[in-house]
Amino acid sequence: MWLFNKHFWGITMDRRFEAREWAALTYSEKARRCQLMADAAMQLANEASSRLVSEDYRRLAEQWLKLATDLLNEAQASLRS
pTM for the complete prediction? Predict the structure, then answer.
């Protein structure tokens, strides 16, 4: 379950991670959640009080976006096979 009480792209997420719930999601749903987490990390980067913390959040956002991209690529590959 995700526990994230901010609204991103019109949905609310929880911050808690439940592996069973994650496993049940489609590639597209996982990618969407990764994109939301990237948005949250970028918001935190923009609000960070120090450059070092801001850079960490930006790197985290980049990793969430990479995972989203990889998941979408997996979704496309699974449709082709």
Answer: 0.77
Give CA separation, 24 vs 18, 33, 41, 69, in Å.
10, 13, 24, 19
pLDDT in the model for residue 57 = 94
User: Token digits for 29?
Assistant: 């749903």
Q: Which distant-in-sequence residues (6+ apart) come within 8 Å of 59 by Cβ?
A: none
Taking only the tens place, the pLDDT of each residue in 10-54 is 556 566 778 899 999 999 999 999 998 999 999 999 999 999 999
Say which residues have a Cβ less than 8 Å from residue 43's Cβ, sequence separation at least 6: 6
CB neighbourhood size of 40 (10 A): 19
Other CB atoms within 10 Å distance of the CB of residue 13: 19
